[in-house]
Amino acid sequence: MEPKLEPRDEPLVSGFLQNPNPNYGLKVPVAESNAVNGTRTNGSDENNDRSEINGNLESMIDVIDVDEVMDPDALAIVLVPDEEDNQLANVEPSYRRKFPPRSAELVRVSNLEIEDERYFRELVRKTRTLYDSLWIYVTLEEDRRRSLLDGPVPRARVRADLKVASMMRDRGLWLNQDKRIVGPIPGGYEDDEDSGDVIIYTGHGGQDKNSRQVAHQKLEGGNLGMERSMHHGVEVRVVRGFKYKGGAGDKVYVYDGIYKIDEYWFEIGKSGFGVYKFKLVRMEGQPEMGSAILKFAENIKTNPLGARPVGYVSLDISRNKEKVPVFLFNDIDDNHDPLEYDYQVTTIFPSFVYHNARNGGGCNCSGGCTVDCLCAKKNGGEFAYDINGRLIKGKPLIIECGPLCSCPPNCWNRVSQKGVRNTFEVFRSMETGWGVRSLDLIQAGSFICEYTGVVLTREQAQVFTMNGEDTLVYPNRFGERWAEWGDFSQVFSDYVRPSYPSIPPLEFAIDVSKIRNLACYMSHSPCPNVFVQLVMYDHSNFGFPHLMLFAMENIPPLRELSLDYGAAGEWTEKLAICN
DNA sequence: GGATGTTCATAATA
DNA sequence: CTATTATGAACATC
């Protein structure tokens, strides 16, 4: 099914100053203010990482007079309440809030050192990964709970997003709870593209519960926030929502960069009531991102040569072996190497693997697998995937239903064996040689592809390397990144890392010198967005699982995929093995 | 299947 | 301080 993108009528806007008090103190002499350093930080006491973040931040931000906002050298904007408000703020409340109120300070972070930028990017990535895996877990738990109820009308499903947000907030896992950070998000990618977007954003208020305009909007709340942001030159971060058919959820939200508020006006609409309109103009010098990339990727998918007249070497290096085409793109040199190899959709094991150790056979769930399923028991009494085929949590091994099972082909427990679902392209780059990227948005936990080749036993591999060949991949050298997917140790105190089903040390190698698939073109990264999950389905030899690759986070189209090949030093950072 | 209604957690405001 | 209102997202239902 083809994902379809439809733009939302109005973009969502966040990151603006929202302050109903026009007399909020605006003048803060730099020398006197220590408002930032004096701010309490949430959760820093019990979590070393977080106190370290705040420690880093404080050294990088500064407090300035708000009149200097337009100064390009300005490091931070901090608005501090005037004397009267300060006195109010200092009154010790007689009740205890669950969370301290968020500070009204606006902070701009700039001139990050490369290590700091890397640190923040990794922190955000980990937080997103935790959110995404928790979301899948909570949704599944809730469905299970509801399925146990026999009531006539099942209660509405609890909102997993809200529940996960609460869980993470309770444990101090939200980022930037204490300060409001404005400006560009650290961790973007260098580029000079500018889509020149202009947005006319309609303010809020004056509507009844049927979303009909029944009164004039007022310059308050978010509307006032927009006006104040324009006045002080505080940029607005724009997030666009799209309907996304073919995905698990029904909508996706993408960050589209920072916009400046050019002007605003009050306008009488068809209803006869006035609404505020804000003209937002995308700031220059930002990379192409978000919805622009999504649209571009859609265009490539439907008409590759139209969208990119130069560079496509092949429109399917799998030669119809995959259910979806695998493009080959090179617009920087004449290298066409990936065409030279036989393409194999799944790994070929030595024949003895299929004949040995057929323990147990398959399940007998002719109608469809339930919790009592034999294969579920092999996975520790639970299914590995949710209804959308997303991996629930990484394990040493996952056993899918297979040819010996009685369940139908659409059984939930058959995912990775069905092969590639997204459109990928192998592409040439200056930095990484060959790389792999998707033209679809890949949701966290989704299956990507198998890492295929020809399996060599330890003995065969020794002979192979003696002949001077160096195109072997060793499964036991991949970093154990599966453990990070569904790692709830920060959320549940009794969380233990999955150790079942346990597997023996893997002593085979994969030869990609003649036969391979797109996986071996993936680059190495110490902070990968793809991980290896071992899976078995077509035999029962625990020493020879399939190497299946899953998404560690939501991966936007055209973002390079990366794997942790482990074995530090053997490959330089971001070097694909198949170069 | 698209429109409409309900529910949720939270923040702002009365 | 509590109570009410407003908000947008996700889900259920029409």
From TrEMBL:
The keyword Nucleotide-binding is annotated on this UniProt entry: no
| All residue ranges annotated as the YDG domain in the record | 138-282
The molecule here is called: Uncharacterized protein
Q: Where is the composition biased (Polar residues)?
A: 35-45
Is Nucleus given among the entry's keywords? Answer: yes
**Domain SET per the UniProt entry, residue ranges:** 422-566
Q: Which Pfam families match?
A: Pre-SET (PF05033), SAD_SRA (PF02182), SET (PF00856)
The root-end lineage is:
Eukaryota, Viridiplantae, Streptophyta, Embryophyta, Tracheophyta
